[in-house]
Design brief:
With 290 residues, this protein is mostly beta strands. It has one domain: Sandwich (Jelly Rolls), CATH 2.60.120. Strands 1, 3, 4, 6, 11, 12, 13, 14 and 16 form a nine-stranded antiparallel beta sheet that branches. Strands 2-5-15-7-8-9-10 form a seven-stranded antiparallel beta sheet, covered by helices on one side. Keywords: Signal.
């Protein structure tokens, strides 16, 4: 499956991802299992989110978010929508989906229909602190979510770029949630290697700059009960590598239940301290698998 981002991009596929598709049943006289679950929840007094129609595409045109969005912990001092981009800034090092008080979690007002899907955020990330990230996924609350993350993290040889998928679920009331995750260091083989050497380190720094200048597409894909993160990085020529769009994916996590609402956010790790992180979000897209 390939999505078309707002800008024209060259394509050089490194990883090809295929996903299955489970069709959503049309209106029938007998209620589907999904409809029965929603009705039971309503009978028990639980809040019931509407089901989003797919495909869903929001290019963030105009100067205000559409009615489809709810911004949790909205902080208008930290984001603005203008000319088709959502500009977001973050500081303080507490912006993660497992923080109930994290600023500006952009959440769709509805759940996804049953079946396979790919959700994608087209974005640009400025790695000012070397401790920032972009998240996209499904979230019910700070203890229950599954999400893809593209993040920068700095240690001995400088800032590196990582692709990550994480599932958090609260299995026992009153206890800490269970977290499972897979991470791939894209600067340790997939895209670049040996970044502690002067030449590769300089190329790595060019790749980080390209995250903001060229942008990327970050995805969470569900196939059956399996979820994985994927990313398309739009890179300039890096050493001997030609300019193009490079695709990568994580290993897969299993999760059986259909839960939560689509969200995205700008993240920042504690090591960023009082440093500022910024990102532009350009388009949100969700399509059923096929």
């Amino acid at each position: 499956m390939r999505f078309t981002a707002k800008s024209t991009r060259l394509s050089l596929a490194v990883v090809v991802m295929l996903s299955g598709f489970v069709p959503l049943a049309g209106a029938q006289e007998e209620m589907s299992a999904e409809e029965q679950a929603r009705l039971a929840a309503a009978d028990n007094g639980a809040a019931v989110a509407q089901t989003l129609a797919l495909p869903f595409v929001d290019p963030f045109d105009g100067n205000a978010l559409s009615a489809s969005w709810v911004v949790q912990n909205e902080n208008l001092d930290k984001y603005v929508l203008e000319a088709g981009d959502i500009f977001v800034l973050e500081n303080g090092g507490t912006a993660t989906p497992d923080n109930a008080e994290a600023d500006n979690i952009f959440t769709l007002d509805g759940g996804l229909p049953a079946g396979d899907f790919t959700m994608q955020i087209s974005a640009k990330l400025e790695t000012k602190t070397g401790e920032e990230s972009v998240w996209i996924g499904l979230r019910e609350d700070e203890d229950n979510y599954i999400a893809a993350q593209l993040y920068a993290h700095t240690k001995g040889c400088g800032t590196a770029l990582y692709l990550h998928v994480e599932s958090s679920r609260n299995l026992t009331e009153g206890e800490k949630p269970t977290v499972t995750q897979f991470t791939s260091n894209l600067f340790d083989g997939p895209l670049l290697d040996n970044i502690c050497s002067d030449g590769p380190r300089a190329i790595a720094d060019e790749a980080l700059v390209a995250l903001f200048e060229e942008g990327f597409d970050l995805r969470l894909t569900r196939t059956g009960f399996q979820y994985h993160a994927g990313v398309t990085l739009n890179m300039p020529a890096l050493g001997n590598q030609p300019a193009g769009a490079y695709e990568f994916a994580t290993r897969r996590l299993a999760r059986t239940e259909n839960f939560g609402q689509p969200f995205f956010m700008l993240g920042q790790f504690k090591k960023a301290g009082s440093g500022e992180s910024t990102a532009l979000f350009q388009e949100m897209r969700i399509e059923a698998g096929q």
